[in-house]
């Protein structure tokens, strides 16, 4: 009797599991407000902005991929999927030593650049999929590649304004390359680190004022108040000088406008690479009039830079927790929490 009862329990449990698995199989996984995917057991449906990809499960996991923009490399590095990459554009902008080793070994080919992609080389290599930002000028190129049976997935990760949502693209790559468990674990680790730093920053008694970027020509382009950078500054316990602005895109300001708004600024971040502050003055002598230039702290984003490549735009795209930690250390130098941790992406300009 006990055996019959136990068999009945196991049978009901298996039915429950099947129902649960069925529910999960059809569940839509939200990456951000503009990206999600759903798995219905026969196909994977990806929605990215105005584009949709319906991919047969028979084609997954992908084995050969090409990348038309280097900012997506960080996701492959984080998941240990470098061997899936068979082609990259503009390799001179790639920071990863691993990727360059594979290029030198002819395991990854150069497929051109944003001025002109080598269509013949791409088609002859027969990649399973190409990932790229959508560039309207290349619509004809995309059509040619699609007609040759190449899946193209447009991922404009640069348009995401929430750092953790940009990191969450890991889950999509995990799904496409049979690395779901690793992607979930990696994302949770980054999310936990990020939230701990954010919570710590909320306990800081002082929120120093911060400005970003620098002059280009006659204008100073700064991140909008609802932008990716603005959120990082806020979550790191900084007081962004344009935080009340409602834009997500860059906002052009005159020097005079920035000068007036930067009266009580203590930190100037995300400056382009310069050898010293004197070099910065050569580009614009008016900087000498700013209080932050004379008595504040200035930081560049070139601590991990080699030739034309900058890891801030590669691994930093994924590891928002490390970027946030850099900003926290900069804004709160007296806090001992990360005292033994060096800055990763940022370097002080003296």
Key descriptive features of the protein:
350 residues, alpha/beta, disordered N terminus, single chain
What does this 3D model show about the protein?
38% of the residues lie in helices and 21% in strands. The longest helix is centred in the N-terminal third of the chain and has 24 residues, at 2-25. It starts with a helix and ends with a strand. It is an alpha/beta fold and 350 residues long. The strands form 5 sheets. The protein has a 5-stranded parallel β-sheet with strand order 7-6-5-8-9, covered by helices on one side. Helix 8 runs parallel beside helix 14. Strand 3 (43-48) and strand 4 (51-56) form a beta hairpin.
Beta-strand content estimate:
15-25%
Q: Would you report the number of β strands?
A: 19
Summarize model confidence as the mean pLDDT: 92
Specify the biggest β-sheet: 5 strands, parallel
Summarize the structure.
This protein is an alpha/beta fold. The chain has 14 helices and 19 strands. The relative contact order is 0.11.
Secondary structure layout:
Layout: H1 2-25, E1 28-30, E2 35-39, E3 43-48, E4 51-56, E5 65-67, H2 73-78, E6 85-88, H3 97-104, E7 109-110, H4 119-125, E8 129-132, H5 139-147, E9 151-154, H6 163-167, H7 169-176, H8 180-202, E10 209-212, E11 215-216, E12 219-223, H9 228-235, E13 239-240, E14 250-253, H10 255-261, E15 265-271, H11 277-283, H12 291-295, E16 297-300, E17 305-306, E18 309-310, H13 315-318, H14 320-331, E19 347-349
Parallel strand pairs: 5-6, 5-8, 6-7, 8-9, 10-13, 10-15, 15-16
Antiparallel strand pairs: 1-2, 2-3, 3-4, 11-12, 12-14, 16-19, 17-18
């Amino acid at each position: 009797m006990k055996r019959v009862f136990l068999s009945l329990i196991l049978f009901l449990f298996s039915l429950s599991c099947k129902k649960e698995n069925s529910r999960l199989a059809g569940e839509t996984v939200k990456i951000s407000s503009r990206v999600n995917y759903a798995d219905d057991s026969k196909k994977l449906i990806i929605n990215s902005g105005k584009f949709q990809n319906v991919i047969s499960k028979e084609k997954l996991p992908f084995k050969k991929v090409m990348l038309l923009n280097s900012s997506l490399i960080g996701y492959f590095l984080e998941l240990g999927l470098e061997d899936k990459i068979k082609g990259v554009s503009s390799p001179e902008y790639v920071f990863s030593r691993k990727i360059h080793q594979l290029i030198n070994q002819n395991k990854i080919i150069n497929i051109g650049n944003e001025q002109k992609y080598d269509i013949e080389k791409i088609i002859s290599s027969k990649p399973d999929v190409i990932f790229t930002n959508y560039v309207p000028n290349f619509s004809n190129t995309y059509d040619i590649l699609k007609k040759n049976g190449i899946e193209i997935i447009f991922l404009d990760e640069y348009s995401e304004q929430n750092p953790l949502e940009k990191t969450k693209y890991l889950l999509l790559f995990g799904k496409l390359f049979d690395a779901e468990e690793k992607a979930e674990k990696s994302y949770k680790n980054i999310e936990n680190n990020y939230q701990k730093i954010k919570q710590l920053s909320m306990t800081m008694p002082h929120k120093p004022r911060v400005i970003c970027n620098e002059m280009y020509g006659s204008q100073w382009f700064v991140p909008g108040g609802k932008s990716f950078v603005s959120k990082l500054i806020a979550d790191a316990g900084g007081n962004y000088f344009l935080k009340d602005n409602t834009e997500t895109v860059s906002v052009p300001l005159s020097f005079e406008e920035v000068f007036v708004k930067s009266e009580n600024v203590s930190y100037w971040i995300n400056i382009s690479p310069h050898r010293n502050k004197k070099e910065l003055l050569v580009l614009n002598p008016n900087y000498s009039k700013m209080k932050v230039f004379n008595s504040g702290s200035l930081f560049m984003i070139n601590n991990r830079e080699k030739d034309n490549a900058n890891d801030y735009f590669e691994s930093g795209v994924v590891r928002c927790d490390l970027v946030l930690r850099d900003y926290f250390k900069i804004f709160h130098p007296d806090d001992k929490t990360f005292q033994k941790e060096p800055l990763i992406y940022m370097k002080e300009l003296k």
